[in-house]
Fold these 2 entries.
Entry 1:
Amino acid sequence: MHSIYKRTTAALAMSVALVVPAYAELTGELRIFLDTSNPAPRATMEAMIDRFAEQHPGLEIETTVIDREAYKTQIRNFLTADTPDVATWYAANRMKPYVEAGLFEDVSDLWAEPEIAENLASTKGAMTIDGKQWGVPYTYYQWGVYYRKDIFDELGLSEPTTWEEELANCQKIVDSGRACYTIGTKFLWTAGGWFDYLNMRTNGFDFHQQLANGEVSWEDDRVKQTFANWKQLIDMGAFIDNHQTYSWQEALPFMVNGEAAAYLMGNFAVAPLREAGLSDDQLDFYQFVAINPDVELAEDAPTDTFHIPSNASNKEAAREFLRFVVSADEQTEINNGSNLGQLPVNAKSSVDNDKFLNQGFEMLSSNSPGGVAQFWDRDAPAEMAKVSMEGFQEFMVKPDNADKILAKLERARQRIYDN
Amino acid sequence: MFPKPIEKQSRAAQISYQAMLPLALLLWLGPLLAVALFSVKPAADFTNANYWGLPSSFEGAFNYGQVFFNSDMPRYLLNSFLITIPTVIGAVALSCMTGFALGIYKFKSNLWIFFMFVAGNFVPFQILMVPVRDLTLQLGLYNTKTGLVLFHIAFQTGFCTLFMRNFIRALPFELIEAARVEGISEWRIFWYVVLPLMKPAIAALSVLIFTFIWNDYFWAVVLTQGAESQPVTAGITSFNAQFRAAYQLMSAGSIVAALPPVAMFFLMQKHFIAGLTLGAVK
């Protein structure tokens, strides 16, 4: 099935190449820095760059792949000295320091082109700072509740859509001797996911972003309401015990063994769950329930991006490369199951025939009117994200300390956003 | 100083010793055994919480194949050798000379200079992190193997000098006096008289420094980044994927990374133990 598909695209690409012999002739050197250092994504990106090179034989392309973690520190160096023409990074607040330092090129002109303006609307907000766009996305993935359908069937439960249904479901699961949710908060960010959803559902996307930007007090009643909702779940025993000692991977066995019924997680959780032996009949997905009916649903969908550094030397070729990356065909190809296995950013792309990718694509393109958030540690500044996620973890262990924790976060807010 | 040999203990003590020893050994080796076991397990065993049980399928060939042919591990291993061997040569060569100077010549500040070398050992190396990083950056040696080698040589020379100086002090001084009477130049005394006598110390120190440097993680992370310069200890973390840590590959990588020092230990066991005690009792 897959090989046929691949052959047709290859044939298609070849016939296109034969009929249309390249666009404007690009020459010179194009230096691309990638952080996709793991074998599979690396091969995907290198294959994509090869296809781009075929279209532009006059271009000398040099690709450098840097270890993903090392990249995060090296980017500060290479954006200022010995700068590449194209570099990978992340959307929203994570790109803000470089945008504000003038190190990323304004690519609003690309976003004004109809091809991109019409097809990439869902991620435009994440790429926009000060009304301008500073790069293009190349992949993203959904978050949501992955659950054991067989356990739900056994208890006679159906996918909840409201907070009341959610609590009722959870009570039944707890009564059956299981936890509703597995979670491992050792590295904090998993608790950030819960906060994202609870706060966006309680107070809406705009309030959530204001909080991330330090514009609202942590002791605001609306934040307290979010924590009160969270406490309802914690108090009824919805989460597994001792979650602060597990990494997100170490929390997976609880779901595989049936000790927990669901996991609020990104789509990357599907692969290990399938490997562990859960079939697609046992595993299913639903969108996080609505809590406050007055706010629009908004989702977490972390987006990976390409940027042109301001100091790049071959910006014309770099722009052409960005156009190429977001084109519908390339998006279909690089995000399919045998490559990145994530969601294409181009609305005209087709999603791989995968149950979870299809549900995620559907959810993000039609049922997320409130907006798309990037995840707490990308939306909030790094320092605030760290302090607050420590607070979330503490809260999940000692929910009665909520007021003390919020007071601490408020002090942190005043210190961090001041300078 | 030494504990009473077990054969001379009472029968009851002997039996409990024999019973406890395998148990203690198993406990001691537990984490290592787990790593070895994990290196032949499929990824799914981790998600199934099969941490200590038998592998659900034997994936040893696949995991080690991945490590050798589908990752940067060979590159990291090569880096480790390119960092460790020059460091051993550099530190041992320098300390032979400093040890000779401090051990043979009687000059005024001899003891103070010796103390300075020794004092370096008492500096917790973590507090050097920021200055050393800045220094290598300014010298243009940041993220190079040379930078790492130079720092290791500088830092290890302190300990090596202590070791060598004490060893040379223990040599019969008459040998040197005899050579001087013959009118042999100091340089030749070092080369033809002292150095051959130092062979056991050189062997012991080389083995010791080799394992020290090979196992260094801290400086590898502070002073280098990326596959072109990092040694294998730091390279193992590259099996942390964007979303998932590939524990089975990390385990296989750790086993591979641990092989050279382990092999070194078993091949040079005699020297290694000598190395641990040589400097201690003068």
Note: Chain B has 14 helices and no strands.
Entry 2:
Amino acid sequence: MKKSVFYGTLAVAAVAAGTLSAQTLAEVQERGSLNCGVSTGLTGFAAPDASGEWQGFDVAMCRAVAAAVLGDAMAVEFVPTTGQTRFTALASGEIDMLARNTTWTFSRDVDLGFEFVGVNYYDGQGFMVPRDLGVSSAMELDGATVCIQTGTTTELNLADFFSSNGMSYEPVPIETNAEAQQQYLAGACDVYTTDASGLAATRATFEDPSAHVILPEIISKEPLGPLVRHGDNQWGDIVRWTLNGLVSAEELGITSANVAELATGTDNPEINRMLGTEGEYGAMLGLDGDWMVRVISSVGNYGEIFEGNIGENTPIGLARGLNAQWTDGGLLYSPPFR
Amino acid sequence: MSEVHAQTVAYVRDTMIPQEAPPPTEAGAIKWLRENLFSSWLNAILTVVSLYVIYWVVSHVAGWMLFGIWDAGSLSECREVRDATYGEGASVACWAVLTDRWDQLMFGFYPSELYWRPVLALVLFLVAIAPVLYDSLPRKMLWFTAASPFVLFFLLWGGTIWGPLAVAAGFAIGWAVLRFATPVIGDLGGIVAAFVVPILYWFFAVGPIAGALGNAIPIGIEFVPSDDFGGFMLAFVIGIAGIILSLPLGILLALGRQSDLFIINKFSVIFIEVIRGVPLIVWLFTASLLLNYFLPPGTNFDLMLRVIIMVTLFSAAYLAEVVRGGLAALPRGQYEGADSLGLDYWQSMRLIILPQALKISIPGIVSTFIGLFKDTTLVVFIGLLDPIGLSNAIRATTDWNGIYWELFIFIGLCFFVCCYAMSQYSQWLERKLRTDHR
């Protein structure tokens, strides 16, 4: 066995002279399935249900791209990745795209050689405290014990926030969100801090959610988005404009219910361009004209995805907030299809 | 004589006194209690305190476990059922997560209509391993044992039947080379050729041959990719493959480390020290991350296979040291006796040295195996969904977010059952093989 590994490594290292291919679209279409990296489990964003189907907000992004490229939203091989393995999996070509609540930062975009195609969720770090504590603002947290996941940017943000406000805190290091819930409920810490979406999801699982409050302060910017490798701009464009299409569709009122009807032609030229009845926009991406029709009819528009997975009618109950359309006071703003 | 007694002793009892029961403090449960629990004031106090602690733990945990709720679709449903049955805020377990996600915990994402395949594979594995574990079974069963790796592979992964057959043919080729080439090119050349030819065959010929046969005579069952493996099935596949592959490799390494041949000796030493000196988690990251950079893009060198290889190498290094301990414990006379009988190296190892050394090493070997089996949970860090990984994934659904101890207790219990069975078998084997006079 040891010999075969050795020879195997030698053999493949010899063949590895080829560079990363710029043919992702062709590869995906030939393979017939999209390899999409997701989280190993994050409430509302990616998790397998009882029958083994992956569900969630990030998962829907993968399905949308699969619908655009392959015509089948179910033709996705989900590759669960951890915080440590996600970037290597993408860089090495094991996955075609990564949709794993990954914060868009300078170094990841530039130094690691990835291309963030946009933002599908604007998150930020927040605090949750028991209502009994009587705290209404993060500025009153001086001297608190804080449950914090180790090795994440949240740890650094927390240190920055407290030191810049001249306050002190005592960290209680924890490894996973599940552990954090136990520690927090057991009273091992006064405050739990993580991304606001995570706080909301955690609070929703408590026996008595109303006994806990999420403080209004958001102390960091966490724009989460899907990303692809550098070097294949066509593939990057496909993922980018699938995301933009989802956002535009909500803005223009295209839903999974009416897309078939609208695809026969409308008075609105932008809808016509998106849905392929006017212009050759699909062909410019290397796809056919119906690509956006397939995307919306299979996963819905951005608003439908949001409401179905993490919105106010789900147990997680996130408000749109920053993730509303720009016309509604949010940050979602898709470039026009023109 | 008797007359003397008759005159000097006034009364002689001529019947036996019936046997009395021992005093109550010296018999039965009371004696045991006095001796073991209340032999002194200090012990009595410690006993009472311990009993209270046990009572406290059991009274809190037993009710929580025994009154647990088994029938619900989500944690909130569980809480509703609990409130209706036991009143608001009662503390009971929600075992319903196990019934709801049982298939997933056992099989991961394996297609549900194919669950019979892993189950059959487990049964066949038990049949295959039985003649190895119990020598009272017919020796003919060992033929099935030899074929079982290929049968099990075929059952678990499926696909064309020609893949496993073509790989199995490599062993036949190796044997044929050893058998027929040795007279021509000598012993050493024969051994080297018997390794090199099959390896070349596996690397360059298996793929095309299996492909061609698969096209010509397509026999096979539905292919299931490794990505679909998960839960305890994944832990078992990695654990069992690691155990079976690492034992022979570990023995070879132990012999290599004792060898007088310079290269073999130094290779074994370096291999053992390097592999053993680095944590398993680092090797797993190497398998999952570093190898990706060596492999050409698009190469499908299965992640699970890489993990199995790493786990095997890791535990082989530990096993080698355990076996070396057994070898070192044998008196020199055993080696010299084997030599004096005129046995060659392999004969003396096979017939005299190893049976004794392995017997001494059994506890260490089984500890290593148990460690290996439990270490399979480390794959959670490279994104494979073993039971621990799946428990995270299950918690990530809105249905079961917030459930904690139930999953860990169940997973712990399953691992305990497996490891305890291994431990009991090894103790049985030690008793059976005991030849000293005690």
Note: Chain B has three domains: 25-99, 159-221, 228-433.
